Amino acid sequence: MNVLEQFGIIPIDFATLVAVLCDYKSPKDKVASMEKSGEVIRLKRGLFLVAPEVHKQHASRELVANHLYGPSYVSFESALSYYKLIPERVHTTRSMTIKRARIFNTPLGNFDYITSSKDYYEIGICQEIINDRYSYLIASPEKAICDMLLTTKGHRIQSVKAMRIYLEEDLRIDFSATETFDLNIVRQCLAIGKKKNELMQFYKLLEQ
Questions:
Q1: Which of 32, 102, 129, 139 would bridge 144 by S-S if both were Cys, CB 3.0 to 4.6 A apart?
Q2: Are residues 15 and 95 in the same domain?
């Protein structure tokens, strides 16, 4: 068995990679050789992902996003696409973080991180556990929409009607899916977040 298979799709740091290659005369050179041969993929300096050809699994962009820069959780269109609430395929994985905003361009695609205050950040985060093998943090559906309302520039949604148009026509969300949304999460976002008018229209729409 290839020594790398044990890591599966979980990103690994350089120190861990060197440690499992300790039987080689120069583990650091072996890492460089594995990167050149395509056995491992460099996500950023010091962080790698074992190539799918080695472990025969599909990489999880959500898992990579959490490891690439944190603390963070996947949100915005990326979360809505994950929940199949929007029809479009999302090419950039967008996340919320309490650290400064960053963008990473990787062989797996682009990863964009938007800054949030700590108290707002902590609302509506879900832990998705996949096959009891790994987990990652992702916004609840209603938190993902709140995140979009707070960070999208140029939007001035002044009424419940305008909010419904935004959800159905701009985001192309099937509005029937919002029936299961947690009003308490939106209420918490409204109490702490900026753009209170937009959040209030969203809250009123869900109340109807």
A1: 139
A2: no
